[in-house]
Amino acid sequence: MNVGEPSAVPVQPDEETVEIILEGGPADLTKVQRVVRADSLTQRIKIVRLGGYEHFERDPHTPTPPDDARVVFRWTARTRIAE
Predict the structure, then answer these.
(1) Domain count of the chain?
(2) Which of 45, 68, 71, 83 sits between 20 and 30 A of 58, alpha carbons compared?
(3) Which Pfam families does the UniProt entry name for this protein (predicted)?
(4) Global pTM?
(5) Above pLDDT 70, what percent of the chain?
């Protein structure tokens, strides 16, 4: 799943989406940018940021919803957007 700049239209909460907390990565990501919604089966997320992508993967130790309303994704890498 790709997540655009902070101005992107957020995914509306429903039974098939979960709130995701992004941990690690760039220190200048705000708290607002670190909370996104995605399909409950999503395993990887890419955040478009400063000419590249910040990659996050689901933490395997995070409880599966609905046990916990939030799922933790941890930063794994940064790549540049190909021109």
Answers:
(1) 1
(2) 83
(3) DUF5988 (PF19450)
(4) 0.76
(5) 73
